[in-house]
Amino acid sequence: xxxxxxxxxxxxxxxxxxxxxxxxxxxxxxxxxxxxxxxxxxxxxxxxxxxxxxxxxxxxxxxxxxxxxxxxxxxxxxxxxxxxxxxxxxxxxxxxxxxxxxxxxxxxxxxxxxxxxxxxxxxxxxxxxxxxxxxxxxxxxxxxxxxxxxxxxxxxxxxxxxxxxxxxxxxxxxxxxxxxxxxxxxxxxxxxxxxxxxxxxxxxxxxxxxxxxxxxxxxxxxxxxxxxxxxxxxxxxxxxxxxxxxxxxxxxxxxxxxxxxxxxxxxxxxxxxxxxxxxxxxxxxxxxxxxxxxxxxxxxxxxxxxxxxxxxxxxxxxxxxxxxxxxxxxxxxxxxxxxxxxxxxxxxxxxxxxxxxxxxxxxxxxxxxxxxxxxxxxxxxxxxxxxxxxxxxxxxxxxxxxxxxxxxxxxxxxxxxxxxxxxxxxxxxxxxxxxxxxxxxxxxxxxxxxxxxxxxxxxxxxx
Length: 463
Description:
Elements: E1 3-7, H1 11-23, E2 27-31, H2 34-42, E3 50-54, H3 62-72, E4 77-82, H4 87-95, E5 100-103, H5 108-136, E6 140-141, E7 144-145, H6 149-161, E8 168-171, H7 178-187, E9 196-200, H8 206-214, E10 215-216, E11 228-229, H9 231-234, E12 239-243, H10 250-262, E13 264-265, E14 274-275, E15 279-284, H11 288-294, H12 299-305, E16 308-311, H13 322-337, E17 343-344, H14 346-354, H15 360-374, E18 379-380, H16 387-392, H17 395-400, H18 412-430, H19 435-442, H20 446-455
Parallel strand pairs: 1-2, 1-3, 3-4, 4-5, 8-15, 8-16, 9-12, 12-15, 17-18
Antiparallel strand pairs: 6-7, 10-11, 13-14
């Protein structure tokens, strides 16, 4: 239900529009001239979602009403109606922020379509504002986005451990954002003005790893034509991030352990020890405790690294964060690609919320980049999403995996919450957004429905 102001000096047309919009489920205030429209817009009950105004109204015309609406309530959409349309007037109206320009006489079906489009645009804009506001407040560290309890725990741990010198081990599946957490730790610490050095332990061959980390002196081996400082020395005063540390060989594990214990390094081919002040943050997608049992990872190094552990849950266990992540990536690629993107259609969002992102946040980002590239309008629709998402997002696919327990287990509370959220969205879709009917369909009270919608961030319970 929307709150609509109708400004029309023709009594019969004003009454027809009022009754038609009221039957469509909207709350309508109807006035006959611009002066009354100004009073309504400036009054206490002035939170209008949409204004339908005639162009010719006397002393204050429709363009005056449009200008005033945009001054007092920029998010309110305005549709102008007139029997005396000209190209110049239409251009002027659109420049002042009108949503559309409807010529008289018109059919009620035409007005209905235009009203629905205007309200959809407004709702998407308000949703983007709400998401942006929440992102800018407590749900974000650098580019880490989330509002679930699990992510709150991650944020709390980051803030507690950041000011210390303690080593941190970050665990989680590939694509969950382990490097972002490492950066958040560094840039929220007293070391933020010093280097943050990333080492991908799985990408550097073992025979080169020691030289890369500790450096080498001239002549230390064939090809060592000059002395070269290592990455640990480059990070002095700051943080070194050892990504995928579970890929290190046992030989290199011994050397890393000694560095952690002594805070000293020695260049390959050198004889002198050098003390260094470097904080170590490590990350892995492996279960290091299992690797220790298998003999693939040193137990003493595991204990040395695992002083503070931060675990990042997979995206499938925090699906409530998907709208926030989607908005974040839309903002990122809107700027990067130069696209005028406003948001995601409800149907596309439902597909994204239902899909099990095995590649986690990284896969979701790739999907949004794909959609932003191919979107033909200002809103991402299902047609803009990769084909495999649309196929896997079908009702059959969703129902088939509801009771499936993955090999690595699941968070049953998060799964049940996701199912309840989907049912609520489906009920609203079935009832065209009429919440009383949705409550009846789900056999719950209207108050219970409002509580659940607020709980899952589905719209505004006061709307």
